[in-house]
Amino acid sequence: SQTIHQWPATLVQPVGSPLSLECTVEGTSNPNLYWYRQAAGRGLQLLFYSVGIGQISSEVPQNLSASRPQDRQFILSSKKLLLSDSGFYLCAWSVSLGQYGYTFGSGTRLTVV
Amino acid sequence: DQQVKQNSPSLSVQEGRISILNCDYTNSMFDYFLWYKKYPAEGPTFLISISSIKDKNEDGRFTVFLNKSAKHLSLHIVPSQPGDSAVYFCAAIQGAQKLVFGQGTRLTINP
């Protein structure tokens, strides 16, 4: 069966520090991978998605970047965090986006201080 | 440009009664509409979906209705239970590659 792993669960980082969040999927090949953010009191905002290794689509210009070095690995990064980067970050995957949508990871709560 | 909107940020319902969550959309080209449920500090989980060619889909206590002429869908939960207290997100499939989400509605079921 397919599983998605996302870590860490919580993270407190100072302003200006770098960020690296990792997501891996098991049990499937060539998944579509996604990074979403839920800011406090807001909905789910798509940040990046990838349909294959090295293929990244950016939805919102911002202080973040994404990379997909392996088929089932998706990384969200920042060189210098801003206070506004605080939020709940979610990784998700799908193979064929249909009636069941995505499967989400458990999320990372990032607090920038 | 908010293509999927949930205009009610919160809803409070008594246990055993019906909960109705609403969602509006602007893009008539969406193929599927989905509802996700999210508990605090967890990822959203898929609840139920409906194809754009149907007007109703039912799964146990959950029913989703789609009104294409009004570009409106709703999720009915009957009867509501305390474990249903969560944030519910409406979503639509765009371009076969990504989901567009609404802002979410926080449902609270009162005993």
Could you explain the architecture of this structure?
The complex is a heterodimer of chains A (113) and B (111). With 113 residues, chain A is an all-beta fold. Helices cover 0% and strands 57% of the residues of chain A. Chain A contains no helices and 11 strands. Chain A is globular and about 40 Å long. In chain A, 40% of the residues are buried. The model of chain A has no long low-confidence stretch (mean pLDDT 91). Chain B is mainly beta and 111 residues long. In chain B, strands 2, 4, 5, 9, 10 and 11 form a 6-stranded mixed β-sheet that branches. In chain B, strands 1-3-8-7-6 form a 5-stranded antiparallel β-sheet, with no helix packed on it. The N and C termini of chain B lie far apart (38 Å). The interface between A and B is medium-sized, with 27 and 24 residues.
Short description:
The complex is a heterodimer of chains A (113) and B (111). Chain A is mainly beta and 113 residues long.
Biggest chain contact: A-B, 27 and 24 residues
Order of helix and strand elements from N to C terminus of chain B: EEEEEEEEEEE
Label the overall shape of chain A: globular
Strand content of chain A: over 45%
Note the main sheet of chain B.
6 strands, mixed
List the secondary-structure elements of chain A in sequence, H or E.
EEEEEEEEEEE
Number of strands of chain A: 11
Residues in helices of chain B, as a percent range: under 10%
Specify Rg of chain B, calculated over alpha carbons.
13 Å
**Structural class by secondary-structure content of chain A:** mainly beta
Biggest sheet details of chain A: 7 strands, mixed
Output the structural class of chain B.
mainly beta
| Cα radius of gyration of chain A in angstroms | 13 Å
pLDDT < 50 runs, ≥5 residues of chain B = none
Arithmetic mean pLDDT of chain A: 91
Quaternary organisation of the protein chains: heterodimer
**Total of helices of chain A:** 0
Cα-to-Cα separation, first versus last residue of chain A? 38 Å
